[in-house]
């Protein structure tokens, strides 16, 4: 990037002494932390003014340095936007006699939700035009749409701050009236009882944002009279409420990272008492579905590390009565299942690849859907209809745009309902190559790396390569198609997705080996994958870039402390980098519920281990690569002060002259901008950072 006389802001040092287990840490930037009340106050106190001034100074510095790229950013944004069909719509799905659809109109940021009764030829009924609803807000999120059993009412959820604290409201679909009932501080989800007037919903703790209470609301009554039906008092657990696909039961589930518990109620008797299925057993998880006279469980009971499917009579629900339906398999992770009147559909993962297995209840059919590519992503849709032979799923890969497919489980006939269109006239699938390679890491494990690049891109030490990973919570990132990524591939970049430990790419053990006291395996896997790509001449340290967000931002912070010389540039989005302080503060959202992910630093063993890798605590006087850090001022998942403090400490200690940017979106939270095109502008900024470092801005 071009040089300028602009000087980076230097954050004021105000040492705060933090002591735990006899260990003293001095945090020079602890003062950057503001409470929600301080952020929301109309009149700002001195601390709030100082924090906002610092964040705005960082934004000004970033915008000054990259100002010469503004035209390129805009062109790149238009290029990415130009690949998207603006007047697009989803494939309609049928639920309870109606076909539901989500569509976009040209030039508009937000979706329009509609439905048609009985037939796709029927008149369209607009449920919500989010463009109208969002016009007075900088951020707007509509979610939680939940239509009553009689199709006359719909619950909807809105968030206008980006802290995932949703308001629930109810709309009459016959009159268009929105009722006065407003329920604050919810997760956004809700469940109708079968009486069409009672809903169940989940309330969050106003400070920690933990989902902790289930309430019952009756239409037309004051929300102050809503009845608390369940309170999850263990602060390491959250709770939620759902309805069985059979529509027979309301189910309340409590969950921690490694333990779960559920209870049920007949949906015809909403004022009744919930009956527990099986009291929680430490490290035993079970997800519940209902079919005929049985409950079905996806569970790790009996040491089923990769999970299995079990069932029990609805009249005898304790674990003593559970029996295997699909037994545990060492090489296959059972990820999910769907129940239909005649079929059981299983979502499995073997050797990293997702598979769909279809099995008749009477055992006359049992087969897998065939997928031919070496890397791909497939997912079963919600499929709300129970009495049908049709299963809907999506398929795409690094080189294949997404397709929505209806598959007849009886005849095996397949119908592509929609293939993602890539506009602009330049995309041809045959111009791109993808493959999977395996890197042997330091402890002998083999880690898969999925690669995609333009067929004309030479693979050598001068090839720019962006390596991405997440590596936490067992979340597996699939090899999905991206229209925005084409802007990098067409400019000679290779994109590499490293399936490091901490995900479930190679089963549940792959996750277990990348969490708690094994967390460093995630970082070492990523670094060793980088070294593999360098050693095998895919790139070199001068052209290798890394990117991750949230817990993947923790990964970025760790690798630049451990092996900064491997990378020319790093993008850390909403990064979780102040791990010790956050995990010691149980007033921060997510903390207590994540002790089973990172460990509880109130215990010295975990404190010492977390401190040994926490990015903020391990910044040192040494050279770092070029770094772009992004955050949202209203982020509820990773508070803005973590990346702000990290950047301030890096500025104070780093010995290089490389770029270091902090860009704070003062209007958004963890997920970034809410409009579909606004998010492209954020991607354009990130890609411009990479392309500028590669001196490729002229190649538009």
Description of the structure:
The chain has 700 residues and is an alpha+beta fold. The model has no long low-confidence stretch (mean pLDDT 93). Strand 14 (238-243) and strand 15 (249-255) form a beta hairpin.
Blueprint (SSEs and pairs):
Layout: E1 16-20, E2 23-27, H1 36-40, H2 46-65, H3 70-81, E3 93-95, E4 98-103, E5 112-117, E6 125-129, H4 130-134, E7 141-147, E8 153-159, E9 166-172, E10 183-192, E11 198-204, E12 211-218, E13 227-231, E14 238-243, E15 249-255, E16 260-266, E17 275-278, E18 286-291, E19 294-299, E20 308-313, E21 323-326, E22 332-339, E23 343-350, E24 353-360, E25 366-368, E26 377-380, E27 390-396, E28 403-408, E29 414-419, E30 432-440, E31 446-454, E32 465-468, H5 486-489, E33 494-498, H6 508-512, H7 520-535, E34 544-549, H8 551-562, E35 569-573, H9 579-583, H10 595-598, H11 604-613, E36 626-632, H12 641-653, E37 660-665, H13 678-693
Parallel strand pairs: 32-33, 32-34, 34-35, 35-36, 36-37
Antiparallel strand pairs: 1-2, 3-4, 4-5, 5-6, 7-8, 8-9, 9-10, 10-11, 11-12, 12-13, 14-15, 15-16, 16-17, 18-19, 19-20, 20-21, 22-23, 23-24, 24-25, 26-27, 27-28, 28-29, 30-31, 31-33
Helix pairs in contact: 3-13, 7-8
């Amino acid at each position: 990037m071009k040089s300028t006389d602009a000087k980076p802001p230097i954050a004021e040092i105000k040492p705060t002494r933090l002591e735990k287990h006899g260990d003293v840490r001095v945090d020079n930037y602890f003062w950057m932390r503001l409470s929600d009340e301080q952020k929301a106050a109309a009149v700002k106190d001195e601390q709030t003014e100082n924090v906002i001034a610092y964040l705005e100074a960082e934004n000004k510095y970033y915008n000054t340095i990259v100002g010469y790229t503004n035209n390129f950013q805009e062109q790149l944004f238009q290029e990415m936007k130009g690949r998207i069909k603006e007047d697009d719509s989803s494939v309609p799905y049928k639920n309870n006699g109606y076909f539901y659809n989500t569509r976009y109109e040209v030039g508009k940021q937000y979706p329009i939700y509609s439905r048609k009764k009985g037939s796709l030829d029927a008149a369209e009924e607009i449920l919500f035009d989010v463009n109208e609803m969002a016009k007075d807000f900088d951020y707007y999120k509509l979610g939680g749409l939940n239509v009553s059993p009689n199709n006359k009412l719909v619950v909807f959820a809105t968030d206008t701050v980006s802290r995932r604290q949703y308001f629930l409201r109810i709309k009459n679909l016959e009159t268009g009236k929105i009722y006065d009932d407003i329920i604050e501080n919810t997760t956004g989800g809700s469940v109708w009882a079968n009486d069409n007037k009672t809903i169940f919903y989940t309330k969050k703790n106003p400070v920690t944002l933990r989902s902790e209470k289930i309430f019952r609301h009756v239409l037309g009554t004051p929300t102050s009279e809503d009845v608390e039906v369940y309170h999850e008092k263990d602060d390491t657990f959250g709770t939620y409420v759902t309805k069985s696909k059979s529509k027979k039961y309301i189910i309340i589930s409590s969950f921690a990272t490694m333990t779960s518990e559920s209870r049920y109620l007949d949906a015809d008797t909403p004022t009744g008492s919930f009956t527990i299925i099986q009291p929680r057993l430490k490290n035993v998880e079970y997800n519940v579905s209902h079919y005929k006279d049985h409950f079905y469980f996806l569970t790790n009971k009996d040491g089923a590390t990769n999970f299995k499917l079990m069932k029990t009579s609805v009249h005898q629900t304790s674990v003593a009565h559970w029996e295997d339906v699909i037994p545990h398999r060492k090489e296959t992770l059972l990820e999910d299942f769907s129940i239909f009147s005649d079929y059981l559909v299983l979502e499995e993962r073997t050797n990293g690849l997702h598979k769909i297995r279809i099995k008749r209840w009477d055992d006359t059919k049992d087969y897998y859907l065939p997928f031919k590519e070496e890397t791909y992503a497939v997912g079963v849709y919600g499929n709300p209809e129970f009495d049908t032979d049709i299963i809907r799923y999506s398929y795409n890969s690094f080189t294949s745009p997404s397709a929505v497919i209806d598959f007849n489980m009886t005849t095996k006939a397949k119908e592509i309902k929609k293939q993602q269109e890539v506009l602009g006239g330049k995309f041809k699938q045959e111009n791109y190559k993808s493959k999977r390679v395996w890197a042997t890491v330091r402890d002998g494990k083999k880690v898969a790396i999925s690669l995609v690049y333009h067929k004309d891109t030479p693979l050598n030490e001068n090839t720019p390569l962006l390596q991405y990973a997440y590596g936490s919570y067992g979340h597996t990132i699939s090899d999905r198609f991206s229209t925005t990524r084409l802007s990098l591939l067409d400019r000679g970049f290779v994109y590499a997705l490293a399936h490091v430990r901490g995900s479930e790419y190679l089963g549940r053990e792959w996750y277990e080996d990348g969490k708690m006291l094994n967390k460093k395996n995630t970082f070492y896997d990523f670094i060793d994958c980088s070294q593999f790509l360098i050693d095998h001449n895919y790139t070199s340290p001068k052209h290798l870039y890394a990117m991750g967000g949230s817990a993947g931002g923790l990964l970025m912070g760790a690798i630049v402390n451990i092996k900064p010389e491997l990378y020319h540039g790093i993008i850390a989005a909403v990064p979780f980098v102040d791990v010790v302080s956050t995990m010691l503060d149980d007033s921060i959202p997510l903390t207590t519920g994540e002790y089973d992910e990172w460990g509880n630093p109130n215990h010295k063993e975990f404190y010492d281990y977390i401190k040994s890798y926490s990015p903020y605590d391990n910044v040192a006087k040494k050279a770092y690569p070029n770094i772009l850090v992004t955050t949202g001022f209203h982020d509820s998942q990773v508070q803005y002060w973590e990346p702000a403090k990290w950047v301030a400490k890096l500025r104070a200690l780093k010995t290089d002259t490389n770029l270091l940017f902090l860009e704070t979106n003062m209007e958004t939270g963890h997920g970034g901008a809410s409009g579909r095109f606004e998010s492209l502008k954020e991607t354009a900024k990130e890609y411009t950072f990479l392309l500028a470092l590669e001196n490729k801005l002229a190649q538009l």
